[in-house]
Amino acid sequence: MVYIVIAMSFALAGGIVGRLKGSSFLLWFLISGLFPIVGLAAAVLYRFDTEEPRRSCPTCGHVCMLHDAICTRCGCELDFPDESEILQPPAPA
């Protein structure tokens, strides 16, 4: 019973940290619940998705992550962009 309370606490903390970093709450909730200490540490050390550079699709104009090879909206194949096409992430408020 004590383990379940501890695991749920770590799961909730891991989910919140993962969501604050721009990732999936459910994914980090499950990881941190299954592996309490390691999962929370991984969520804390994981990169911020909100700080990744982005680019816009030349076909539909949808803003995609820089590493995406295919536009998630229209399915257009994306080549690696020039420096002028890279959009910097917005500054944190």
From TrEMBL:
Keywords: Membrane, Transmembrane, Transmembrane helix
Record has Transmembrane as a keyword: yes
Stretches that traverse the bilayer: 25-46
Protein name: Zinc ribbon domain-containing protein
